[in-house]
Amino acid sequence: MRSPGTPPAAGRARDHGYKVAGDDAGGSVGPDGIQEFALGDGSVGRVGSVPRLGCVAGVFDLFHVGHVDVLERARRHCDRLVVAVLSDDWALDAWGGRPFVPLLERAQIVEHLRCVDEVVVVDDVPSEWLTGVLGVQTVFAASATDGVLGVGELDGIPAGLITVLPAGRGSRSPILRAAIDQRQSRSSNVA
Description:
Layout: E1 12-13, E2 19-20, E3 36-38, E4 44-46, E5 53-58, H1 65-76, E6 80-86, H2 88-95, H3 103-111, E7 118-122, H4 127-134, E8 138-142, E9 162-165, H5 174-190
Parallel strand pairs: 2-9, 5-6, 5-8, 6-7, 8-9
Antiparallel strand pairs: 1-2, 3-4
């Protein structure tokens, strides 16, 4: 856990156009050259800029420590974090089955995290809705964290808006791991 007052890492541009967020806590100048500083609540402030709104989208079924890792990392790279919890219908289409945890419970679990400022329930995450309605400047993708959208699942989102976060830890619970593995094998049969 990062202590308040420690500045977040600045994203680095890659050839494919996505920013990759580091997990280190060094640096105080953002990728666009604007000076960044940590606010008292651990969020990022930027000198001479408007608050930066970020979004993470996912199903967040079988919530575990890896989800917390991804959401906390995302929050370090924006001033406000909106989490888009995907509907059961989205999961049914993508995975071939409904989530284990009901939608309302998944949204309530995410809503109670300190790093989350707002939760919205959605059937999809179209670019025009994210940037137009929500006003999002950064969409976070998670690499290899089950239930959180990765780059390949963010179709239509401009690469310049996407910041890729490192994978969160996996659950050490053998029962939870077995359920997640079962769901992932079921979803690979749908694709």
